[in-house]
Design a protein that fits this description.
By secondary structure, the protein is mainly beta. The protein is about 0% helix and about 20% strand. It contains no helices and 7 strands. Strands 1, 2, 3, 4, 5, 6 and 7 form a 7-stranded mixed β-sheet that branches.
Length: about 170
Amino acid sequence: MAGPQWNKPGGGTNFLCPHENPHFDTDDNSGLLVGVEYQLHRPIQSVFSEINNDGSPLYTKSAPCAVCYVEGQSTILMVPARTQCPDGWTTEYAEYLASAYTDSAGINKRHYSSYICLDEAPEVGFAHSGGLNHFQALIYVVEVGCGTLPCSEYINNRELACVVCSK
């Protein structure tokens, strides 16, 4: 997975799935696209299974792309704040909503990023990155900030679930 660098303005706002054998065009002034790595600290790290990573923690490892295709289904929907799909929909996977880091101190110059749904056992991409903590594009689990979202339903500072559904 690739996206905009966490502390640089400009460039895109969404995460991308670039091809493993890239083609290049011209060399000119441009935005910046960098690899995405997990920033899942304890205790949130412990809610994700490490079964797909030989028992290795996800922290600072590169995040691979996932493209959801379900044969015979024409619509894929990610539903934040739910762990079950609406009636008539099929659950593909569920766990936690993730995005770029929100920084109230103003260090993070990025203003927007895509929300993605991580499954219960995220995988690690590009094995050669080795968890070196490059601090390029970073994803974190999303927490709730209640207020406009009703605090009676959306508990402040709790990690928000998500589910990916098909129909």
